[in-house]
Amino acid sequence: HGSVLRGDLNAVRVGAGSTIGSRCVLHAARSSPTGLPAATSVGRDVTVGDRCLLRSATVGDGAVLGEGSILLEGSVVGAGAVLGPGTVVPPGRLVPAGELWAGKPARFVRALTKDERAATAAVAAESGASRAGGYAQHELPEGGMRYKAVEALREALSGK
Question: What is the pTM (predicted TM-score) of this model?
Fold first, then answer.
């Protein structure tokens, strides 16, 4: 739904079970003058809210990024961490695992409780599977392979 994962300058990796919201941009710099990783890496079972921007950032397994969050070069969000909506994580900032951060720039709010960490992990793991099932029901006619018919028509018209 309008998201862009741009891996032309460096790698962009998204782990299994992760959900990328609508109108997100994930991209990476060619290199980093600071020595921090220039690739963008999203772990397993991560929930990235709508309208997020990740540039050369690393997100640990099971993290939740609130809508409109921005992660800049070299920033790291630890496993199971949660960012509030609209949070801006400056270059090189570390958001430790299991913590809630929010604001512009991102600031520590509090450590997540054991119950919150368990709930966050369950929601993140469930999110990808439930969305995938819903989209499968909206499959295009002919098994979603309409593009093959278009390509065959194009070849027929071009005389190949």
Answer: 0.77
